[in-house]
Design a protein that fits this description.
heterodimer, A: 183 residues, mainly beta, 1 helix, 14 strands, 7% helix, globular, B: 179 residues
Chain lengths: 183, 179
């Protein structure tokens, strides 16, 4: 059936893809892409247990030729947990164009994010290789877990005007589970 | 439990995504001519493609036509055509009900001509291909999804309909049929 109301299209899409949260547009500036120092930038705050159905950064300003690599992580603060990476560092983002994406593909944490094929075209995604982060311990001292999902730059420093927006699509797996943009 | 047709349709939308198709049988032999690029759908914003296929409505001639799906971004990369996959095997003698199926994955993956009359043994299998984007200034991309023909020209009456199932990934994103 064809729908004409944008609000209906959005609700159907929420059902199909999960809830969408994004950072402010271009909220990941060049300072977030300093790989020599393994710079980490928290993008989202996670409450409770969620299933990630899509996670990516979309470049809103082009990158320079530095071979910076990216990975995604979960860092639990309540309870205090050791930061865990959700994947290995991906391919170089050198000279990425506006509209290209660094896509988390899920699955084993040894998997690597994919830099999309071309501006606006991502050929690989998480498919059904969803990951679950956070937790919920009813009756315990912890209750709803709280933590952040972020991006770590590695290997090399971007020095130009690169910028990107972080996006996550998720499904709550515990009561009151939610995601908020951290930047 | 039995549901009314409208309820079943709504449930299908929630499972399969939003469905947009060209007019029935609108793709004729002239569209299946070597080097012919036909735009099938407009997209606006960022969308996830959940299924994309062409369903034969009138049988193809015994000519080894192949089909490749591609995307053309008017914004941000003006009129740049990018392959979404590799071309299919021969579409010779496809019967009505056969489908030419985009299976997603890396762009080097070939689309698949399905096994037989109206039975598709291969789908995107949960993979989603994302097209479109929104830049830092809030400028929303738009463009078209089309098909490129190679290797053989259909030389007799044939017909087909293109279908896409999709979901919006940015506010206001949508797909419309061109044909």
């Amino acid at each position: 059936m064809a729908y004409n109301r944008p609000s209906t299209i959005q609700r159907v899409s929420d059902q199909v893809l999960g809830h969408h949260v994004e950072t402010s547009a271009g909220a990941l500036p060049v300072a977030s892409f300093k790989g020599v120092a393994n710079t980490e930038t928290d993008m989202f705050t996670v409450y409770g247990r969620i299933q990630i159905t899509q996670l990516f950064v979309e470049f809103t300003a082009a990158g320079d030729a530095a071979a910076t690599q990216l990975l995604f992580y979960y860092n639990g603060s309540e309870p205090a947990l050791t930061l865990v990476v959700l994947c290995a560092a991906g391919a170089s983002i050198a000279t990425v164009a506006i509209g290209q994406r660094c896509m988390h593909v899920g699955g084993a944490v040894a998997s690597t994010p994919i830099v999309s094929d071309s501006a606006g075209l991502s050929d690989l995604d998480m498919a059904s290789a969803y990951q679950i982060v956070g937790g919920y311990a009813t009756g315990g001292a912890t209750g709803i877990f709280t933590g952040t999902i972020g991006m770590r730059a590695t290997v090399a420093d971007q020095a130009g005007t690169i910028a990107a927006t972080g996006h996550i699509f998720y499904v709550p797996l515990s009561p009151d589970a939610a995601v908020e943009a951290a930047i | 439990m039995a549901y009314s047709p409208s309820t079943r349709a709504r449930m299908a939308d929630l499972t399969m995504g939003l469905h947009t198709q060209t007019a029935e049988g609108i793709l004729l032999d002239a569209h299946f001519t070597i080097a012919n690029q036909t735009e099938l759908f407009n997209f606006y914003g960022r969308i996830a493609i959940l299924q994309l296929f062409i369903e034969v409505t009138t049988a193809f001639a015994a000519v080894g036509t192949t089909v490749q799906f591609n995307v053309t971004h008017t914004v941000p990369a003006a009129a740049t055509v990018n392959a979404m996959n590799a071309k299919t095997a021969s579409c010779a003698s496809l019967s009505a009900g056969s489908r030419i199926v985009f299976v997603g994955g890396i762009v080097a993956t070939a689309s698949v001509v399905t096994a037989g009359n109206a039975a598709s043994d291969v789908t995107m299998a949960g993979k989603k291909v994302i097209i479109g984007c929104v830049d830092g200034a809030g400028i929303v991309s738009y463009g078209t999804i089309g098909m490129l023909i190679a290797d053989g020209t259909q030389n007799a009456t044939c017909g087909a309909t293109a279908h896409i199932y999709w979901a919006a990934m940015s506010p206001g994103a949508y797909v419309t049929s061109i044909l």
